[in-house]
Amino acid sequence: MQIQQLQVAYDARADRLLLRIASAQREEIGVLITRRLLKALWPALQRMLNSHLSAKPLAAHDPGGESSPRGGRFDAPFDGDKLTHPLGTEPLLAAESRLQPLEGPLCRIMLGEPGARQVSFDCDRDLMEALCAMLRGTVTKAEWDLPLDDLPLPEALTGGPSDLPPTVH
Question: Which of 16, 37, 75, 107 is spaced 20 to 30 A from 165 at the CA atom?
Fold first, then answer.
């Protein structure tokens, strides 16, 4: 799936983060992320960002607005008009996640319901940094008292990028 736009918002009623993913194919997938899942996933995201994805040189910023080398733009509001919903209009409740290093350097993030719906997308360094910044900002607004920058890396994540466990939560 080629990412066109991402949005992370706090759903106070459900006490969950809502990740909205819009693809270049005009599809939208919603993913609900719990505090527990994010707490388990965050160290792996940071490890991937600081190890496997750090091999890519930082790109210069686009003066016309920040754009991802994969085609997405992050300087405009989320455009949810006329999007199809291949997994349904109800967001999936992520109970499991996987991170996989890919060549490029890229990584694949999979979020899903056990034995049910799932979404996976590839991230380069720029997209991962944008996603992490959105998650960090939304967690602060949600007042989850989850110090994302201070979470220690689990012992299983202290090795090289090939030592990353495929299933985080």
Answer: 16
